[in-house]
Amino acid sequence: MDALLLSQYVLSGVVIGMIYSLMALGITFIYSIMKMINWGMGEFYMIGSYVQYALIVSLVGPGRWYLALPLAMGAVFVLGLVVQRFLLRPMFVGGIERRDEYATIITIALMVFFRNLAIVLGGPNQYAPPDYARPVTLGTLPISGNRFVALLATLVLLGLFYLVIKKTWVGRALRGAAQNRVGIQTAGIDVLRLDMLAFGGGVALAAAAGALLAPDFLVYPENGAISTFKGFEIIVIGGLGSILGSVVGGVLLGVIEALGSVFVSAAYKDLYGFLLLIALLVFRPTGLFGERERSV
Amino acid sequence: MIERARVALLAALLVVGLTVPALAQKPVKIGVLTPLSPPGDAAAGQFIVRGAKMGADDVNARGGVLGGRKIELVVEDDSGTPEKGAAGFRKLATQDQAVAVVGQFHSSVMTAVQALAEDFKVPVFSTQASARQITEKHLNYTFRTHVIDPDRCQMWTRWVKERGFKRAALITENTDFGVGLVDETKKAFASLYPGAELKTIIFDRAVVDLTPQLLEIKNWKPDVLLNGGIGTPMYLIAKQAYDIGLTPAVPTLISYDAPARPEYWKNLGEKGNWASFIVYYHPTMKLTPRGEAFRKKYMAEFKEDPIYGALNGYSQVVLLADALNASKSDKIDDLLKALLAGKFEGWNGTISFTRGEGPYWQQWTPPMLVTQYTKPEMPFADVKIVYPTDLKTGEWMPAPKR
After folding, report:
1. What is the C-alpha to C-alpha distance for residues A143 and A163, in angstroms, rounded to an integer?
2. How many Å apart are CA B338 and CA B332, to the nearest integer?
């Protein structure tokens, strides 16, 4: 075994795992509050990448990608608010009995709609915003400057997310809603408004991943598919509903894929994460940090 | 009584008079089944449609076919997936009653629809699908006017040998094209360049992070990287190979003509420089009068040199019109006979469909050249042909050290 190659693979896995954990965090955040899975998460990633590209080439210019990032996140946040308000809110106020099925149908329909809308508006071709930074060497790993920037931005976003959740009144309310949606209403908190915030915030995290990875993974109508795929893998590994699990699951998935690439073959990189996922489903179905659902 | 008969006769004449010209003017439909949305190479499909439409316009401007009937194109998107391709072909063959279908780009889709072409007895043309098995099956309704992968792989093996590269790494996708590329390159290296080493990696076409695969290749220390991605994967390989420092220090050869398209530089910027790539058309080529007329019209309309896919799409529609006229019928059996018997003016030569050995069955092959970009944003018209030796217009150049 080549130690240099091993270190490069592990570093590469950690970097990409951290970035994908933004997707997982978005999925798990929405689930925690709204108790629903957003199957169209990849399309918000895709929209984030398109908005970022459009802003860079037409408004802020190639050197100011860092201005485009919060704008792209903001635009997708607002889109998330609108989607939640008009398409998802009825499942809580409209007397819908089968909420899971309702949410699944709506979010899958959104996935198809946004993907086709991207083809109509932007054409089927791929685009790439200019690089955010020159290639760098991270330890032993020669890496794209874009990915290095994406790693740093991910760490900043994760830190901000942690601060908002742990140190603010809104964060406390969101944590309360995650624990008991009915209970928190007795304290006078409008849980439907929290749902809007949670959905908007969750999809904005996906948009951040899309915007950050746009120069490396390109901008095209189906670019969200693989990140959604990874996001769901990560939440199963880390545990659905666990914020820490999203980050640890992302890193672990990246490292497992890296080790498999070294010891078996890089050609089957995506298989190794699935093997871990299957093992966890057999031995610890709640994931590493997930909790067994309690009912009274 | 006589009066009644006269009225009936007049009515009959009126009906005949109204319907016969209508039947005579009924257009002849040709299907264009090609990738126009992801995950297919949608840019390629757009160029094919562009050429096919210009072909139909050209034929119609010259009076149409079969004594004045217009050619009508029916365009269907196969998305580069066999299931959508099969659905599109069924629609074209049954609902639209197309006499033939052109535009096939992805080998996996072509492989799926050619079985349907046999069932429905509708000729299908590969415009840019190159897998060996497509014509090797010796099917009656399958035609191709594009290169085949054994020829492509032999060519790049000879190029690798001429450059003196001893270790070649091929990275490609898990499609019929990619898997065929690996098989054919292994065979070509064994027969043409036995001393050289070849490393092959096949990845899933949906994967976007190819860093581990490319690191493995970099660690293997190849002399040349063969990029076998189609569409988005081709760009991902090029970008990520540059980012980890594999290219341009290690020269790269791209398996098809995507770098000739305008979006190449937009997507890759300086990372696309120093790439060599296989093309089937070069602006300095001598074309047939038909090809030259098309090039002029294309440049006047789109303000850029035509792309090979457009030339081939155009040629296929025009040769079908020639075959329809030669057969004097829109019956598919007659059209098939005319296709097999005729010689047709293509964009750069005379096309005929003989039934040869192996994959050379109802197959016509355009030229294949290796070209190279040597500065960022270089127009395709300025690229030098660096291989084969007898056609080259410039020397291949290694990239300066970064």
Report:
1. 29
2. 10
pTM for this model (two decimals) = 0.88
Q: Which residues of A touch B239 (CB under 8 A)?
A: 128, 144, 216, 218
Which amino acid would we find at residue B299?
M
B34 vs A262, residue with greater confidence: B34
Q: What CA–CA distance (Å, rounded) separates B251 from B171?
A: 14
CA dihedral A165, A168, A174, A180 (to 10 degrees): 110
Residue A144's alpha-carbon distances to A135, A256, B208, in angstroms, are 4, 21, 14
pLDDT average, residue stretch B200-211: 89
Q: Are B48 and B90 in a shared domain?
A: yes
Nearest CA in chain B to A138: B244
- What is the rounded average pLDDT of the residues B348-358? 95
User: Do B206 and A123 count as a contact with CB atoms less than 8 A apart?
Assistant: no
**Which amino acid makes up residue A229?**
F
Both tokens assigned to A268: 């089957």
* B206 shares contact with chain A (CB less than 8 Å): yes
Residue B170 touches partner A, C-beta closer than 8 Å:
no
Cβ contact (<8 Å) for A217 and B209?
A: yes
Distance from CA of B48 to the nearest CA of A (A): 14
Please give the Cα distance from B225 to B401 (Å, whole number).
Answer: 17
- For residue B38, list chain A residues with Cβ-Cβ distance below 8 A: 119, 124, 220-222
| Interchain proximity A16–B209, CB inside 8 Å | yes
CATH topology of domain A3-283: ABC transporter involved in vitamin B12 uptake, BtuC (1.10.3470)
Q: Write the DSSP symbol of residue A58.
A: I
pLDDT at residue B176, as a whole number: 87
SS (H, E, C) A180-214: CHHHHHHCCCCHHHHHHHHHHHHHHHHHHHHHHHH
Q: What is the full DSSP assignment across B169-236?
A: EEEEESSHHHHHHHHHHHHHHHHH-TTSEEEEEEE-TT----HHHHHHHHHH--SEEEEE--SHHHHH
Distance between B63 CA and the closest CA of chain A, angstroms = 34
Contact yes or no for B110/B124 (Cβ under 8 A): yes
Please name the residues in contact with A270: beta carbons below 8 A apart, sequence gap of 6 or more: A257, B204, B207
Burial class (CB in 10 A: 0-12, 13-18, 19+), B245: middle
CA distance B71 to A79: 46
pLDDT at position A228 is: 87
Q: Are residues B372 and B238 in the same domain?
A: yes
Å from A222 to nearest chain B CA? 7
B80, pLDDT greater than 90: yes
> Domain spans of chain A?
3-283
CATH number reported for the structural domain that contains residue B189 in this entry: 3.40.50.2300
Domain housing B210:
150-279+368-391
